[in-house]
Amino acid sequence: MSEAQEKAAGEESLAPQETRIMDRWSYLLAWLGGCVSIGTFAMGSSLVGQLNMLQAVGAIAIGCFVIGVALAINGAAGHKYGIPFMVQARTAFGFSGTRLPGLVRAVPAVVWFGFQSWIGAGALNAVSATLLGWDNLVAWFVIFQLLQIALSVYGFKGIKWLENVGSVFIIASLVYMFYAVITKFGGAINERITSIEGTWGMPFWGATMLFLGIYSTMMLNVSDYSRELHKNVRPGPLTTIYAMSILPATLFMGLIGLMVSGATGTADPIKVFSSAVDNTPLLVTTLLFIAFAQVTTNVLNNVVPPAYVLMDLFRLSFRKSAVVVGLLAFCTFPWVLVKDESASGLQMFVQTYSAFLGPIFAVLVVDYYVLRGRRLDLAKLYDENGPYRGVNWAGMLATLAGAAVALSFPSISWYASLLPAGVVYYLLMNHWAPCRRFLDGEPTVAAPMTASRRRA
Asked: In b/e form, how buried is each residue of 102-120, taking b as 16+ CB within 10 angstroms?
C-alpha cells in the first residue's frame, strides 16, 4: 500500500508524521495554489504612486526569494522530524509558552480567512447576479464559508488534490486577468505607473517587506506543511520549490493590484474585473477563479495553522478545530476590510503582525541551528513534565525585544526584528540560569554551556 493510501482524510495529529503524502511536484503545486492571495492584490494596490512597474517587479522578486530561503530554513525541523510548528516551538518557548507564538500565528490567519472569504463570496454573488439575477452577498458569504469548512475537515489529503488540480486553472486565469487588465487600462497604466520615476530607496525595501509580510505567517509554521513532504526530498532544492511556487502567483496578483488600482482608483477586485471584462462567459470564468483562489488559499494557509494551535491548546481533534476556525472567521468583519479606504489599514496590519512574527522566526532558527545543531529529542518534545515544561522566558523576552525594535521601523518591521531577537535569545540561553533546563539533556554545539550545565 502506498503512503498516500495509508493516511485517511482528516487524520491529522500533533504526533511525529510518519506517513508523507506529498512528493516534490505535488508540494510545489500545493504552494502555488495556496498562495493566490487577494491580500497580495491589496498590497499591490497600496504601492500606487510609490513605485513604477520595474521597481514593483523587483520588490516582489526579492520578497519571494527571501520567503523561499526562510521557508526552507525554518521548515527543516518539520521535514526531518515530522513535527508541526506548535511542537517545534516547545524547545524555544516551552509547553505553556507556545501559546504566544501560537496565537500570534493564528490571529492573522483567521483575519485573512474572513477577508478572503468575503472576496470569494462577492465573486460568487456577481456570478449569481449576472446569470440568475439573484443578488445576496450575505447569503453567499455564509454558503461559501460553510463550503470551505466542509473542505477543510479533509485535512492534507483533501488539500493535496484541491491544490494540485486547481493550480493549472489558477495559472491560466492569472495570465488571462493580467492580459485583460493591460488591454483595458493600458494607457492609464503607462501614464500613472510605468512612466513615473518611483524610488529605489526605503519605500522600495518597504515594498519587499510588504509582499514578504503576507507570507511571514507561513514562514513561522512551515513545519506544518514540510512534515507532509516525502523524506527523500533533499533540503537543497526546497528553497527553489518554495520560491518558484510563490513567485508566479505573487507577481501576477501584486502587479494586477498595482495596475488596476492605479488606473481605476479602486482596490476592490470584483468591481475592477466586472468593468474590465466585457464578455459575459469570460467574466463568469474570471469571477469563479477569484472565488476558487480564495478556497485554495484558505484551506492551506488560513485553516491548518490555527487548527493546529487549537489542537495543542484545547486538545481538540483536527476536524473540530477546522470547524471552529471557520466559525471564527465570521467574526472578523471582512466587509469592512475590503473597502477602498481599508488598503492602508491592511498594510499597517501586515507591518504590525510581521513585527511579532519576525522575532519568533529568529528565535526558532537560532534555537534549532545554533543551540541544538539541528538535533532534537522527540521524547522530550512530547513530555509535558520534561525540560520543556512551563515557559522559556528567553524566547518570550527575545520576541518582545525584537518586536520593540521592529515597531520602531514599521516599513521594514520583519527585517528589523531578526537580529535583535536572535542575539537576545542566544545570550539569555547561554547566560541566564532559569533557561538552562531548556537545554538540559539536549544536544548542543555550545560546549562551555554544556560544561556549566554539568557543574549545575
From this structure: bebbbbbbbbbbbbbbbbb
CB 85 within 8 A of CB 238: no
Exposed, middle or buried: residue 43 (CB in 10 Å: 0-12, 13-18, 19+)?
buried
Q: Measuring CA to CA, how many Å separate 291 from each of 119, 182, 200, 285? A: 7, 22, 35, 10
Residue 34 is classified by DSSP as: H
Distance CA 294, CA 117 (A): 6
- Summarize pLDDT for 145-202 with one digit per residue, the tens: 999 999 999 988 888 888 877 777 878 888 887 887 888 888 888 888 888 888 998 8
d(CA 34, CA 185): 28
**Spatial distance between the Cα atoms of 53 and 178, rounded to a whole number of angstroms:** 13
Sign of the C-alpha dihedral, residues 285, 290, 292, 293? positive
Instruction: Measure the N-to-C terminal CA separation of the chain; round to a whole number of Å.
Output: 51
SS3 content of the chain, % helix, strand, coil (to 5): 75, 0, 20
Three-class DSSP labels, 381-396: HCCCCCCCCCCCHHHH
Amino acid identity at 358: G
Q: Would the CA dihedral through 76, 2, 381, 357 be positive or negative?
A: positive
Tell me the whole-structure pTM to 2 decimals.
0.87
